[in-house]
TrEMBL record:
<protein>
    <submittedName>
        <fullName>Fis family transcriptional regulator</fullName>
    </submittedName>
</protein>
<dbReference type="InterPro" id="IPR042070">
    <property type="entry name" value="PucR_C-HTH_sf"/>
</dbReference>
<dbReference type="InterPro" id="IPR012914">
    <property type="entry name" value="PucR_dom"/>
</dbReference>
<dbReference type="InterPro" id="IPR025736">
    <property type="entry name" value="PucR_C-HTH_dom"/>
</dbReference>
<dbReference type="InterPro" id="IPR051448">
    <property type="entry name" value="CdaR-like_regulators"/>
</dbReference>
<feature type="domain" description="PucR C-terminal helix-turn-helix">
    <location>
        <begin position="428"/>
        <end position="484"/>
    </location>
</feature>
<dbReference type="Pfam" id="PF07905">
    <property type="entry name" value="PucR"/>
</dbReference>
<dbReference type="Pfam" id="PF13556">
    <property type="entry name" value="HTH_30"/>
</dbReference>
<feature type="domain" description="Purine catabolism PurC-like">
    <location>
        <begin position="24"/>
        <end position="122"/>
    </location>
</feature>
Amino acid sequence: MLTVGDILRSEALGLQGIHVPRPDADVRWVATSELADPAPFLESGEILLTTGLETGRWRTEWDGYVQRLAQARVAAIGMATGLTHAETPTGLITACRIHDVNLFEVPRQTTFVAISRHIAQLLEEQESTAAREALTTQRQLISAAAKPDPTTAVITALAQAVNGAVCLMAPDGRVLTGPVGPRRADFPLDEVEEDVRRLHAHGRHSAAVQSRPGQSVSVYPIGLRGRPSTYLAAMGPMRLSDGQRHAVTTAVAVLGLVDEQDRSRARTRRHLRGRAVELVVGNDSRTAQLVLDVDWPVPVLPERVRILRATGPEHDTDDAMSALERRGMLAGMVAGELCAVLTPEQTQQAADRLDQTGLLIGIGHAVPLADAAAGYRTAGLALAQATPTARVVNWDRVIGDGPLGLIDPQRAAAFAESWLSDLDSEQLETLRCFLRHHGSRLKVAEELGLHRNTVRNRLEAIEAVLPGKLDDPQTRVSAWIALQVQPLK
């Protein structure tokens, strides 16, 4: 952009800066006015030239005049001397200092037409230069996209164009590529990581721009559709030129095309992996290995595996799938669920990573690869026990908990409440003792200090309100479960 400082440096015009606190103010055009209030006729960014024709007798009016021009965001005021005023009025200088407005003096021999023509020429030259630079940069970025590593080549070319540093980051703030560029050591990585994580929550149509002394950082999502898989962070000077801004937008577009190609290949690989997982859990590991060898080189499938199954929102499932893939783990979608074929050693790492998502996760028993279907079934049973407060359930833990681990706590509590509702505390104690001694009435009598006939009478009273006889194994199992889930009844 053309600035006030650029114009004041022109020796041909002979302009003299009186008060120039903002020499970097952008100049969009030149306006000439002798009105006492020209502000309503300005759009911002103009240099206002005036001879002060209506201000010859002004004393206190200058402050309001400059204040209105400051509100109109003029780039500068140019006061011509030698006509109405022999020199720039003191009141005008004071007002410009108060309101932080650029002010310069136009000597008698310099015409307003000369200033306008000179500024128009500079604007045209800058526009032409910016267009050439933009075209050159565009060609460089497009050429970079055709190289073997297009992503690195594009961000390296962009870093040179903005004379700064560029980095490509994952949605969780991890660095994927970079920073690269002449100022990579100054790249504010921690702050950009926070911006990326914040932007990812708002989807694809969001960006961030930070400005600080001497530099600016812009963050843009990359991708033509769907949720962004990467983010571009470009650090350049505090005020990017038109050509540099165009370079950034071109890089975002080019990287979007590269990303779409990568996604297409990733979708193909993911489809093949999903089919391979289906074959593994169907006990056809030989065909699964052949499928994997087509497009995704992996080690030979392990001899023993654990199957992981997970359900949850689509975006969490997609993020989880990507996380497992980055760690070299075999995962795919099977019957609408995320399913991973893991070695026993990988299980804990995968569970820890996925526990940070919104997924519910079940991990099956370790089984031989040839019997992966059994591991898939136990993973499903473990998944059925997962809750928002206990997202990861391992089948080994379910086995350790016994049959109660397979029962929904709320349903079990309702069952116990109904099954035991007609028993008093004395009967409950007798029933527990009876089950503990495997139906031995003699041992019940010894433990409770009762006569055998008293024990017999109590058990008959208990059986009268239960749905079956205590000698029936089904009744004993039901009683044991009810007492376990409601021990204090």
